[in-house]
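so the lab meeting is tmrw and i was supposed to have these ready like two days ago... anyway. pasting both below. for each one the top line is the aa sequence and the line under it is the structure tokens. i havent really looked at them closely yet so no promises
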Amino acid sequence: MIAAVRDPEKMDQEAAKLGIDPKDYQAMKLECASLQSVKDFVQDLKKVLPRGRGLDRLVCNAAVYLPTDPKPRFTDDGYEMSFGVNHLSHF
């Protein structure tokens, strides 16, 4: 299993707390608020997957919801945060 996370070290720490064997997953960095991070993740993923093998499953669980935030937030690429993280980063 590959876990795309903002902080792979933190993922490893939490997995250890839960007793998840490090051989059962690989934490890889992905920041959905940066399309460059998404591109970098894809390149890194291609290096990890066996040649000619695609994904068996994909679970997209990134979400930003800030309806009461008085000041709009934007991704590294200038998109409104909700739109950039919730929609654009998955493509």
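ok protien two:
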Amino acid sequence: MQYAFYFDSSRCLQCFACEIACKSAHGLAPGVNAEPGTQGPRWRRVVTIDPLSGGDTPVQYFSMSCMHCGKPACEAVCPTGAIHKREEDGIVVVDPSKCIGCHYCFFACPFGVPQYGDDGTMQKCNLCLERLEEGQQPACVEQCCGGAIHFGTLEELSKLIESETATQLAGSTHPAMLVGR
């Protein structure tokens, strides 16, 4: 089984509710007098994708977090074994007590996901593991105002989007992220 996110960019309002919900659920500092999306660590972040110059493509927004890859590059380069992929659900987790803050994972991750807190150790989205264990959805999914973020197994999400134009992100790490429109 592999848990994953599905993100429909056509429904993203760039409201930052997903990012704020993530920070709140995990006790991450929002920053004093900061605009959403400007201070970290940001386990989920809304990024702007500007159109190519001269094109008619509008600006799009992408709510991004750890992709919980099938073959996580971060896990492969971690010298202490602080990062591992759970076999039972595919969630990539970090053991902060083993992290030495070397940043190898940051440089290996093709998505720039690893974040670092004040203590210098790596932290990132864990799919709200504690919420999942209580039968709840990840905080970002629950608070998404536009209904742009969905969560489930890759199989469940594939069925959800059968009638839509969506693809799984490609890459050598096999990211567990489906993207629509």
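from a quick look at the 2nd one: DSSP finds six helices and ten strands in the chain. Strands lie at 3-8, 45-49, 60-64, 83-85, 92-94, 115-116, 122-123, 149-153, 166-168, 177-180. will dig more after coffe
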